[in-house]
């Protein structure tokens, strides 16, 4: 059953039922994106929960998630459709043996059976009964030409295949575009969308994420891990830890049957939340070597 969002509070409640903690600002753009049928553009540092929004929305709506992972060099045909040449060739040969007329063969091999559907075509075709969720992930990795092409698709959800004709989506998919902002995405694309920046979580949000994603974690321990991560993000590391790192670390500590942080365990498990050698060295030498800093990170329990 796909829910019809009546209010922003309902969006927040439904998401939290799916173990996704959304603040009011995010719930508001999701509500509007659903009601106005506008694509959602989510930008933010890696690991703050952008991709997960699309996954959770598809679960909430009980609909399919179609994912287009962007990368440098991604082109229209890889995103849309390709003709299945080997299959076409095979059929040409078979039909020639049967002495089928040339025109008939041509009609046959340019029919939908011979199309390889890529995510964008799939999203348009799948919208017959229930609109899918279309995730266009990490758009900042693709090239500007691809962005321009995407702009067209997002504006009318129809594509023209010269040999077949124009195909229009019956129901508009819910579109989630994400960017890690390794480069700026063009204004024209953003204009088509509702924009939302997902920031690193507040203390309260991060604590709730830990509690909902790591069943069995003790609340005081979750608090301690949260305080630590919030503090770690005030340092300008090469790569600040995201929510993924908090969850990975929490999971690792629980696997080690830990229920509180101390000086030693932080040193042993640092690799769960710092992923650059420079950051690790800096943390060890400039921060962890200082007793006053350790107290700030660990709180009174440490
Ligand atoms: N608000 C949130 N509520 C619950 N889990 C979250 C939240 N934000 C992030 N996560 C978790 O953190 C991890 C990283 O999220 P992801 O969506 O992959 O980040 P991004 O796409 O921004 O890099 C996932 O395991 C996700 O479930
Ligand atoms: Mg992502």
Number of strands: 9
What is the terminal separation in angstroms? 47 Å
* Helix/strand structural class: alpha/beta
Placed side by side, the strands forming the largest sheet appear as 2-5-8-1-9
- Sequence stretches where pLDDT stays below 50 over 5 or more residues: none
Strand content: 5-15%
Please describe the topology of this protein:
Blueprint lengths: L7 H10 L6 H13 L3 E4 L6 H12 L3 E5 L6 H4 L1 E3 L1 H13 L4 H8 L5 E3 L1 H7 L7 E5 L6 H13 L1 E4 L3 E4 L5 E6 L7 H5 L2 E4 L5 H11 L5 H14 L10 H13 L7 H7 L7 H11 L3 H8 L4
Parallel strand pairs: 1-8, 1-9, 2-5, 5-8
Antiparallel strand pairs: 3-4, 6-7
Helix pairs in contact: 1-2, 5-6, 10-11, 10-12
The structure holds adenosine-5'-diphosphate and magnesium ion (MG).
Structure description:
There is one protein chain. This protein is an alpha/beta fold. It has 2 domains: 8-72 and 128-197, P-loop containing nucleotide triphosphate hydrolases (Rossmann fold), CATH 3.40.50; 203-298. The chain has 15 helices and 9 strands. The protein has helices spanning 8-17, 24-36, 50-61, 76-79, 85-97, 102-109, 119-125, 144-156, 187-191, 203-213, 219-232, 243-255, 263-269, 277-287, 291-298, and strands at 40-43, 65-69, 81-83, 115-117, 133-137, 158-161, 165-168, 174-179, 194-197. The strands form 3 sheets. The chain has a 5-stranded parallel β-sheet, sandwiched between helices. A two-stranded antiparallel sheet has the order 3-4. Strands 6-7 form a two-stranded antiparallel ribbon. Magnesium ion is lined by residues 50-51, 137, 178.
């Amino acid at each position: 059953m796909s829910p019809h969002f009546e209010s922003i509070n309902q969006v927040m409640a439904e998401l939290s039922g799916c173990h996704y903690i959304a603040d009011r600002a995010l719930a508001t753009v999701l509500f509007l994106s659903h009601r106005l049928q506008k694509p959602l553009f989510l930008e933010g540092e890696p690991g703050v929960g952008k991709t997960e929004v699309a996954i959770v929305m598809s679960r909430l709506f009980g609909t399919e998630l179609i994912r287009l992972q962007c990368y440098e060099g991604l082109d229209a045909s890889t995103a849309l459709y390709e003709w299945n040449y080997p299959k076409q060739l095979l059929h040409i040969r078979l039909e020639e043996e049967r002495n089928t007329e040339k025109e008939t063969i041509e009609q046959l091999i340019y029919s939908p059976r011979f199309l390889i559907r890529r995510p964008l075509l799939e999203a348009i075709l799948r919208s017959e009964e229930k609109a899918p969720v279309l995730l266009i992930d990490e758009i900042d990795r693709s090239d500007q030409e691809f962005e321009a092409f995407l702009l067209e698709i997002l504006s009318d959800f129809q594509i023209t295949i010269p040999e077949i004709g124009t195909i229009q989506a019956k129901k508009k998919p819910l579109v989630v575009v994400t960017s890690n902002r390794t480069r700026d995405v063009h204004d024209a694309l953003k204009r088509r969308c509702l924009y939302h920046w997902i920031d690193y979580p507040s203390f309260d949000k991060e604590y709730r994420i830990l509690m909902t994603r790591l069943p069995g974690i003790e609340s005081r321990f979750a608090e301690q891990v949260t305080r630590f991560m919030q503090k770690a993000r005030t340092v300008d590391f090469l790569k600040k830890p995201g929510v993924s790192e908090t969850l990975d670390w929490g999971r690792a500590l629980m696997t080690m049957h830990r229920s509180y942080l101390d000086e030693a365990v932080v040193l042993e498990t640092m690799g769960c939340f710092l992923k650059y050698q420079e950051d690790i060295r800096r943390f060890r030498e400039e921060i962890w070597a200082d007793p006053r800093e350790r107290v700030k990170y660990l709180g009174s329990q440490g």
